[in-house]
Design brief:
CATH architecture: 3-Layer(aba) Sandwich
Number of domains: 1
Distance between the termini: 19 Å
Number of helices: 5
Radius of gyration: 16 Å
Shape: globular
């Protein structure tokens, strides 16, 4: 097996953005990197996501401090926004794992506005991020989702060929104390777009 050391200061090549993407229903959206002036629009986007869905996200996405941290972590994370007529309708990010032993991998996250789901937007965002990960020399992309609360995101990962690695039974708990399973997936980038 070939060993590869990833330079954690490696810049994300964003030269292919902004770009227009066609969704399954024929609508066109703009993909572009997240930028500092997007803070308020991103907060509005996340505030419109139903609270029961936001609860399962890893970060408090309605916090200006959290969004501010995302905007400052440009070396570790590359975030894309999808927009239509100036409105953010999707956000996805590739976040490098910390540490030399895990620096060859990245986690992916994706959130899509309710009125743009089931059109291929989440699949397109994840696909672009897998291309980015491959282009910077990462070996794999990891993804995790709460099975019954993030069905669309899981369907997008499945459609792209992510491999289901396992399940954490009761890995998430909702506000009412009910347990939910987390599904772990991976995309080995050596097989991405073969």
């Amino acid at each position: 097996m070939q060993s590869m050391v990833i330079d954690s200061a490696l810049a994300w090549p964003a030269k292919s953005y902004p770009k227009r993407v066609n969704l399954r229903d024929g609508s066109r959206v703009l993909f572009r990197p997240l930028e500092a002036p997007d803070r308020d629009a991103l907060l509005a986007f996340f505030s419109a996501i139903p609270e029961q869905e936001r609860f399962f996200l890893k970060d408090d996405v309605t916090s200006p401090e959290v969004i501010g941290d995302w905007l400052r972590e440009v070396e570790r994370a590359f975030a894309l926004v999808a927009e239509v007529s100036g409105r953010i309708i999707g956000e996805a990010a590739l976040v490098r794992r910390r540490g030399k032993a895990r620096g060859h991998l990245a986690d992916v996250r994706v959130v899509v506005a309710e009125d743009f789901r089931n059109r291929g937007l989440g699949t397109s965002l994840i696909s672009d991020l897998c291309d980015m990960a491959r282009d910077v020399g990462l070996n794999g992309v990891l993804f995790e989702a709460v099975e019954d609360a993030q069905k669309e995101a899981l369907a997008a990962a499945d459609a792209l060929g992510f491999v289901r690695l396992g399940r954490i039974y009761g890995g998430a708990i909702d506000r009412d104390g009910r347990l939910h399973d987390i599904v772990l997936l991976a995309m080995p980038l050596r097989r991405w777009r073969e």
